[in-house]
Amino acid sequence: MVKEVLPIMRQQGHGQIINVGSIAGLVAGPFWAFYCASKHAVEGYTESLRYEVKRFNIQVSLVEPGYCKTNIVNTSVESAASGLIQETYQPYLSRSKEKWIQVIQNGDDPKLVAETILHIIQSKSPRIRYLVGKEKWIPPIKHIIPESIFESMERRYWKLDS
After folding, report:
1. Which residues contact 94 (CB under 8 A, 6 or more apart)?
2. How far, CA to CA in Å, does 8 sit from each of 58, 69, 107, 110?
3. Can you give the residue range of the structural domain that contains 18?
4. DSSP 101-116
5. How many domains does the chain have?
6. Model-level pTM?
7. Does the active-site annotation cover 35?
8. Is residue 93 part of a domain?
9. Pick the catalytic residue: 35, 67, 92, 130?
10. Going residue by residue through the chain (162 aa), what tens digit of pLDDT does each one get?
């Protein structure tokens, strides 16, 4: 889509692109490697694109929601882990899936994402990143505390060592 709209935006001398990624592009969770990798790619794509088009007065932003009440967990965990040897990972996968279901059920209303997008559209100088939801504190903390402590916290949270 960006490839199609950029020539028009350059010609008119302004524009705005808002990508939707996920906090999973900044903080990975177990059994979601491909999902997290795709969101990390959106992170890099957005940042690079922003540098490239700023001189054309085109704004680029990225909305990165945490866990929202959606049906993503109903099929994602098994399909995300489908490349793994199921017998080997099954106990961990089952415990993690229970936690994923709980997290999603207690997640934020997806309206927060829509409201954030509206805020970006109305902003005179939008930022590059907008972390959304209850988990927005996690990515900044990840870069402050030692990696070993963060990993230990994540393993405990997702019940990988139980």
Report:
1. none
2. 11, 36, 38, 30
3. 2-66+109-154
4. HHHHHT-B-THHHHHH
5. 1
6. 0.86
7. yes
8. no
9. 35
10. 999 999 999 999 999 999 999 999 999 988 888 889 999 999 999 999 999 999 999 999 999 999 998 877 665 655 555 555 567 777 777 777 888 888 888 999 999 999 999 999 999 999 999 999 999 999 999 999 999 999 999 999 988 886
